[in-house]
Amino acid sequence: MAELQGKIVPGSEIISVTEALDRITKSAVYAKYCSPLYNAAAMDGIMVIASHTNGASEKKPVELQPDQDYKIVDTGDPIIPPYDAVIMAEDLIESSDGKLRILASSSPWEHVRPIGEDIVAGEMILPSNHLIRPIDIGVLLSAGILQLEVIKKPRVAIFPTGTEIIEPTEIPKKGDIIESNSRMFENMITVKGGVAFRFPPIADNYAKIKEKVAAAAKEYDLVIINAGSSAGTEDFTVHVLRELGTVIIHGVAIKPGKPVILALVNDKPVIGLPGYPVSAYIGFQNFVLPVLRLYLDQKASEQETGIEAVISKRIVSSLKYKEYIHVKVGSVGDKIVAAPLARGAGAAMSLVRADGFCVIGQNSEGVEAGEKVRVELYRSLEEIRNTLVIIGSHDLIIDVIADMMPNHYKNMYVSSTHVGSMGGLMALKRGEAHLAPIHLLDEKTGAYNTAYVQQMFGDEVAIIRGVGRVQGFIVKKGNPLDIHTIKDIRKSRYVNRQRGAGTRILFDFMLKQAHMDAAEINGYTNEMTTHMAVAALVQSESADAGLGIQSAAKAMGLDFVPVGLEEYDFAVPKKYLELDRVKAFLHILKSEAFKEKLTVLGGYTSDHLGEIITF
Asked: Which of 459, 418, 440 is nearest to 567 (CA)?
């Protein structure tokens, strides 16, 4: 289809989300709202102030007073301050006087779904060129998206030809052939994302065929003429197309299916397909589908399901259930790696992000990291093998690069999993990732990343320089608590990052420098896995401050108190530097288009983008 490259430009249109099933996104879609919209009860029971339950045990039950220590809640109800935890109904003991007793203390945020647990306002929920599925529509609506831009469906005219052709509703006579190919084409076009317009059969009449094709080439994006494409005395198609436009191909080395025609009329592709059903089908697959993909900005792929993959993280499962685990999948070295995504009934985004799923059978306690599992794929194995696997620290720029990759390199994709900087380096160690985003501060030297990489890998791993990014305190608009230093955090409700995250390491270093103890920080154990999740808690009044990056604060409309510039880089085994996927990543990282996106996000420097440090 090289002859049509540049002549076919995909169009776009704005449609309602509720009508977007099986459409393809033209551009990336970002969440308008968080999900949940508020801190919500994850269980039926009572919401409590966790500190009021301290010391509860079987030997020393704690008695709770209604409206003073607790309020009754059902699953999904808002958790209203000062309440900060939920105790399940089955863990409550009712006294004869109507009061409630508990036999175990509750910790803050226990059985509470924090705001933005599933979706955070401002984060990318669908990339460009994404085929919209039923689960995507649910997530889009949950995120406040009512309309979106999609690639316009190509309009395809289908003309069956032949004097011997009759409609299926007619009674056939000797010499008649019931026309059926056009209905096959009609449905194949619908399944593949086009809009089919099937016309009644045209007799073998040169003038009539010419008239219909000339008119259709002005109104439709693609025209299919069925039958009459060979070299018989009444096979007029090729002669009509030569008169109306330019014939690019007439006859191909395919059996069956040789008499295929590809032409341009009014700069619109016109395809002549043979009349025999099998030949027509093969011709459609080889010529019509590639043209449809050009209109839909898609690439060819063959769906393969059921592959064996190495699980990248231990999965603990209950003996009671057969459990479905959604995973991100990529090809690293000589193995297929599956990285588990968020689990839980409320984690709808895990379905959107998933490349497939594996099943943990009943009577199994789970699988260990490094074990092989069977994965049923949602994507083709070809796409999996052309995916760059990134595991490590979270940053908004990873989503940006993931969106840019297939737009710059049609057969390349990015799969990213956020496990923190140290988790990313461990994934490299196990051979489960191509790149690990890191921002690890060496307390001895004050330098970032190099000491950790050298210590863990020696000279086997290099560093691709990424962005400088501003770390600081994400605070409410107007900074009402007047937070400016680490010591000011003591007067706030803090939200932390998970252990192993570079931001967590930086915060612990700042505590050490200030001669402070973690016990002084209200919320030190309240952990989130991304900068956007931290910002969402502050924005929702569930926390007063959290250490994070400036772009996350900007995305959520919050204030930001900078504490310093850090280096967010990418560790990469040297053997992967020559991979096409890594080269494509480097090209995007150095591009002006990427630098422009950094400017829009805010809080980044780009002085050393793409420089490679080797040891």
From this structure: 440
Nearest to 535 by CA among 562, 555, 518, 515: 555
Task: Give me the pLDDT at residue 352, please.
Answer: 78
**How wide is the angle at C-alpha 328 spanned by C-alphas 12 and 497, nearest 5°?**
100
Do the Cβ atoms of 585 and 401 come closer than 8 Å?
yes
> Using CA atoms, how far apart are residues 112 and 553, in angstroms rounded to an integer?
24
pLDDT at residue 259 above 90? no
Contact 588, 404 (CB under 8 A): yes
Lowest mean pLDDT across 412-421, 466-475, 589-598: 412-421
pTM for the predicted model, two decimal places = 0.71
Name residues whose C-beta falls within 8 Å of residue 257's C-beta, 6 or more positions apart in sequence.
274, 278, 279, 280, 282, 283, 286
Report the relative pairing of strands 323-332 and 372-377 from DSSP bridges. Answer: unpaired
Task: Give pLDDT, residue 185.
Answer: 93
Which bin fits 410, alpha (ψ -120 to 50), beta or left (φ > 0)? alpha
Ranges assigned E (strand) in 275-412: 307-311, 315-316, 323-332, 335-340, 356-360, 366-367, 372-377, 387-392
Amino acid letter, 275: G
Q: Are 75 and 44 in contact (CB under 8 A)?
A: yes
Cα Rg of the chain, angstroms: 30
SS3 letters across 189-246:
HHHCCCEEEECCCECCCHHHHHHHHHHHHHHCCEEEEECCCCCCCCCCHHHHHHHHCE
Instruction: Give the DSSP H/E element, type plus range, for residue 30.
Output: strand 29-30
| Residue matched to tokens 């900005």 | 297
Task: Determine the number of helices (DSSP H) and then strands (DSSP E) in the chain.
Answer: 16, 37
For 47, 237, 551, 571, the CA distances from 600, given in Å and listed in that order, are 41, 53, 9, 26
Question: What's the rounded mean pLDDT across residues 158-164?
Answer: 91
Give 378-430 pLDDT, tens digit per residue.
888 888 999 999 999 988 899 999 999 988 888 899 988 888 899 999 999 99
Q: Tokens representing 212?
A: 């219909």
CA angle, corner 87, sides to 83 and 92, nearest 5? 125
Of 370, 336, 390, whose CA–CA distance to 572 is shortest? 390
Q: Which CA distances in Å does 497 have to 383, 395, 514, 528? A: 33, 13, 19, 5
Mean pLDDT across the chain: 89
